[in-house]
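[Automated response] Your request has been received and processed.

Submitted sequence:
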Amino acid sequence: MFTGIVEEVGRILSVQRRAQSAVLSIRGPKVTSDVAIGDSIAVNGVCLTVTSLRGDTFTADVSAETLRRTTLDRATSGTYVNLERAMRMGDRFGGHIVQGHVDAVGTVRSIVPEGESVRFTVDAPPEVLRYVIEKGSIAVDGVSLTVAGLDERGFWIALIPQTMKDTTLGKMRPGARVNLEADMFAKYVERFLSLKEGVSRA
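Generated structure:
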């Protein structure tokens, strides 16, 4: 479980491609300071398990399913990524509940300055948009963000200077692909209501 508050921007040092999977080697001095093999780290919003540690670098396996559903399918050496360690009991909870289970990949439509902030618009597939509401939460590349508005193609958020500085979102350009994870509570509500409706019709 994560909060969507990025701890640092790390860098992919190498990508070992296999038949249907991959192994990433990622440098992250902060997140590796107190993790152990088997711990979870969110990499651009994708929950990965640490398989080895060497100094300030860790490795993680990426399954075929993860490659199909996330932007890690195009990860290359030198790519910068948002990193967050799994939360611990008693930690401050500054974002929203993020599972690290990406729902789909979206595309940055536009990035428009608005005063000190930036209006950051993302096109999202229907399976994500169905859970998006104005002032609700969504994780974009592992960053917990508040939805400022939406249309039939996607949604937009107001990125403050701090978020742009501390995450990879500040370096993005229109056309960039991003991992999207909708608020899990919306999914539970939909599931509950669909089951309830099914029972009432029985």
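Summary generated for your ticket: DSSP finds four helices and 13 strands in the chain. Helices lie at 64-69, 126-129, 161-166, 184-201.
If you did not submit this request, please reply to this message.
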